[in-house]
Amino acid sequence: MHAVSCMYFSAGEQPFPCLASYGASKAALGLFINTLRHELEPWGVKVSTVLPSAFKTAQTSNSKYWEEQYRHLIQNLPPELLEEYGEDYTLETMELYQEFSKTANEDLSPVINAIAEALTSPNPKLRYYAGPGVSLMYFIYTYFPMYISDRFLQMHFLKKKVLPRGLRIDSGSHHNNNNINKT
């Protein structure tokens, strides 16, 4: 038996707040993997996908990395976009990513075990959910109404408190980026 195991983050299948371009790249990877699965099937090659939860990596847990990314963004963002979003909004986003990365799992064994099983099993699963919470996240996204899964992602991923400057100026409203009305 021949096997291929591919891995990508679930942002390609679920609408994580503030990850539109990242999610689009992962969606493309997911489609590529599923197409590859169909194309290799006649040769008896089994293709599995490993979908990990959040795991700490050298890059994501490095505050210097986040600060460099932030500086790069501020320096390269067109002035009109920076005006629309505001530096405080982009700064809060970076800080939220840093906070989120602190909650990521340090134990990579669920991912390693899933890859090993996908490559060595005589009948590998199409998908392996590796790490805490990822199965629940997929369950909610698949079986619950969209407004519930959207709310779940908004509440558990990025808890934005700062509105983009353009929304503050335009509306003067009392809602936040998670569409929670406040009075």
Topology at a glance:
Blueprint: E1 2-7, H1 20-40, E2 45-52, H2 63-76, H3 79-85, H4 87-102, H5 109-120, E3 127-130, H6 134-143, H7 146-156, H8 165-171
Parallel strand pairs: 1-2, 2-3
Order of helices and strands: EHEHHHHEHHH
Give the strand order of the largest sheet, numbering strands 1, 2, ... along the chain.
1-2-3
Radius of gyration: 19 Å
Mean pLDDT: 86
Helix content: 40-55%
Structural class: mainly alpha
Number of helices: 8
Largest beta sheet, briefly? 3 strands, parallel
Strand tally is: 3
Strand content: 5-15%
How far apart are the termini? 61 Å
State the shape: elongated
Task: Please sum up the structure shown.
The protein has 183 residues and is mainly α. Helices cover 54% and strands 10% of the residues. One of its GO terms (molecular function) is 11-beta-hydroxysteroid dehydrogenase (NAD+) activity.
Description:
- The protein is mostly helical and 183 residues long.
- The chain is built from eight helices and three strands.
- Helix 2 runs antiparallel to helix 4 (87-102) and helix 6 (134-143) packs antiparallel against helix 7.
- It starts with a strand and ends in a 12-residue tail after the last helix.
Distinctive features:
single chain; 183 residues; mainly alpha; three-stranded parallel β-sheet; 3 strands; elongated; disordered C terminus
